[in-house]
Specification:
Blueprint lengths: L16 E11 L4 H15 L8 H9 L23 E12 L6 E3 L4
Antiparallel strand pairs: 1-2, 2-3
């Protein structure tokens, strides 16, 4: 019958989880968290040797750039308070697990 076909929304239960995506923007800076992410990316994607990836190289490439930081344009106000210059855009994806028969959710910590 059409109501029991696999593609029917009513025939497949909702997954026991959902995802929450938060995007943040911050002025470029050094932190261990960001450096570790950068180092992993350079090794995995570009196959850079681990010994080449240093704090100094990271700072020179992504933090101490020739782009001068400026304050946000006044008319932008709350919309874009970051101004111009080197910025990091960070994506935080969290898997939120729904617990059966309860109104609670369990949020998994970001990696």
């Amino acid at each position: 019958s059409p109501s029991s076909s696999p593609s029917s929304p009513s025939s497949s239960p909702l997954p026991p989880y959902y995802y929450n995506l938060l995007v943040t923007v911050e002025k470029a800076h050094f932190s261990s968290e960001i450096f570790d992410l950068y180092a992993n990316y350079q090794v995995t994607i570009h196959h850079d040797p681990v010994e080449r990836i240093t704090h100094q190289e990271f700072k020179a490439f992504l933090v101490d750039t020739p782009l001068l930081s400026t304050k946000g344009v006044q008319k932008w106000g709350e919309i874009w308070p970051h101004g111009c210059g080197s910025l990091f855009r960070k994506y935080h994806l969290r898997k939120i697990i729904k617990q059966e028969h309860q109104n609670k959710v369990q949020v998994s910590a970001p990696p």
